Description:
The structure holds two protein chains of two kinds. By secondary structure, chain A is α+β, with helices and mostly antiparallel strands. Chain A is 45% helix and 12% strand. Chain A has one domain: Arc Repressor Mutant, subunit A (Orthogonal Bundle). A three-stranded antiparallel β-sheet of chain A has the order 1-3-2. Chain B has helices at 9-22, 31-38, 58-66, 119-133, 136-148, 155-168, 175-184, and strands at 27-29, 47-52, 70-74, 77-80, 86-88, 95-96, 99-100, 105-109, 112-116. In chain B, a hairpin with a 2-residue loop joins strand 8 (105-109) and strand 9. Chain B starts with 8 loop residues before the first helix and ends with a helix. The model of chain B has no long low-confidence stretch (mean pLDDT 94). The A-B interface holds A 55-57, 74-80 and B 75-76, 90-91, 93, 95, 97-100, 128-129, 132, 168-169, 171.
Amino acid sequence: MRRDDLRPAVFGTATRDRVLIRLALSENGLHVRELARQIQTSPNAVHRVVIALERAGVVVSRPVGTTRIVLLNRRWYGAVELRALLERLASAYPEVDARARTFRERPRRIGKPL
Amino acid sequence: MTLADGAALVDVAFAACTVLARAGETAVLCGGSAAAYYVPDLYQSLDIDFVVEVGAAPHVVDRALATLGYARVAEGYYRHATLRYALAFPIGPLAIGREFVTSWRTDRRADLLLHVYTPTDVVRDRFLHYWAWGDRTALDVALAVARTHAAEVDLDAFAAWTRRELAADASYDPSRIGRFLSSLQ
């Protein structure tokens, strides 16, 4: 993430914006490291944002193996409106949108070559 | 007020709600602990979830709960030195899906009180976990509350609420409503 990024931090910080936008572009959620890789920031920074957003009820996480999958909380009272806003905001973050488009969410059979 | 070493979830819930009420804060028992309140033999929770009114001052909550021996160990999370039950305070407002909860039941026990979700709201809340995430445990708890408190659960209101949620978010699977209702029969 560039320090001279002039895009507005609608949700307080650029990292928050990117985390939320990237999660809105995911059907199944992402683990923190992948989320950090996708928005090109550090896992620690993403972890801090996730904790704050989870406390607010906006995102949820669930353990999968030794990691946690983070996703938007569809039970949250503003979930529908938030998702619509984030999908709109994604157009202001084409690099996040572009990475999301190349990230495979569908299943892959074990042993299948690339 | 002191809590006995063997205090049960319901004892802690009444005590916490009462000391908060005396401090001027309205706290409503919700989530899985509200389900545990209605079907204690079928479902237990070690976290006692309360939502306090938006704007409640943390230091007021801290002081009130300290009188019971609870200390804040994380934001919105309190532990007791000997009791296994933790007190959790998710950020409000009280809501189930898209709808805010603005009324609740108040039970009394001697000079103590407990604000708690109605049985209908517990059913909505637990069912929504199943509806949103496919959580079968939550479905079973919703069914248990609906069966155990059949006279108090308004299934017409439940059905109307599911229609409103579906209208707002068409990605919810309507067949899960049918599975819930048919399992009740």
